[in-house]
């Protein structure tokens, strides 16, 4: 079990020099190495024990799959950003699903997804390296019966191959010495949104069946390396300060909390969209909960005492010794800039460790 009291989720704001290198398409490797090194120093200087590479080498938090695996057809950043995004004022930004988005052939690995990320990160930090991987069923978004049917007649056939790819990835990360892996599953809370639930139902699955299939796939990935501590991250989306869904965990808590084999649950709780702490009563006694109390959408710095009070409130459902704190989501889940400046991000990372020190000592 990883017992750190404070951690980031994964992504950090991309520096300008990295964005410029990506736009030029030149000197990318050197820019990425520099950006990861800067991200490591940022987290270590904030006092964090768990260190990510900021996902600096990725177009999106889940794009290492489509970059490393052939068969996805043509895709770009829009493949990871479609949906109805809402801002804090309730204004909607609709990003349509790309018309030709879909798997077009059998998935075949060209390389490992994140092994290269882990090797550089582990070699350059004295902390505990954390690698983030996508939940297998996130890639149901790439299932289109017309484009995909010849290669995968049924959605579960596609999910089985994606799961196998992630199992191979986890085994390689374990061989390299990884101790902590986070599985990102933002699509679970999206089931609380009628439009998103309708998309999955259109593929032939009601919400309960979809969750059962998804958790089974996640668990198969985790079972590939029992020596690794796994976390499951649930959020409601973050893109340039916008979000995709709202609603408490009540309708999905029993199925997810009770059946996942993840040892740590990383749960979004930065504002009223995420509901109350009461569903935490369904967390089994062998799991930790990392409370995502710090916003990565709003630049205002949270009050330390207020965060301590919220942790105390959550401890009525999960004992304090099994709680930790994090931001609600990644600071920059894609290369698109959000509403926070690097100085805002640094302040929030320092706040994480300040809260942890005050609450847990």
User: pLDDT under 50 segments (min length 5)?
Assistant: none
SS class: alpha/beta
CATH topology: TIM Barrel
| Largest sheet strand order | 1-6-7-8-9-10-11
CATH architecture assignment = Alpha-Beta Barrel
Please estimate the helix content.
Answer: 25-40%
- Give Rg in angstroms: 19 Å
CATH class: Alpha Beta
Q: Report the order of strands and helices.
A: HHEHEEEEHEHHEHHEHEEHEH
Provide a descriptive summary of the structure in words.
The chain has 361 residues and is an alpha/beta fold. The chain has one domain (16-360): TIM Barrel (Alpha-Beta Barrel), CATH 3.20.20. 37% of the residues lie in helices and 14% in strands. It has eleven helices and eleven strands. The chain has helices at 16-24, 28-45, 63-68, 115-123, 145-148, 155-176, 194-202, 207-223, 250-259, 304-314, 342-360; strands at residues 50-51, 69-70, 83-86, 92-95, 108-109, 128-134, 180-184, 229-234, 264-268, 288-294, 323-327. Helix 10 links the parallel strand 10 (288-294) and strand 11. Helix 6 (155-176) packs parallel to helix 8 (207-223), helix 8 packs parallel to helix 9 and helix 10 crosses helix 11.
Give a summary of the structure in a few sentences.
Helices cover 37% and strands 14% of the residues. With 361 residues, it is α/β, with parallel strands linked by helices. It has one domain: TIM Barrel.
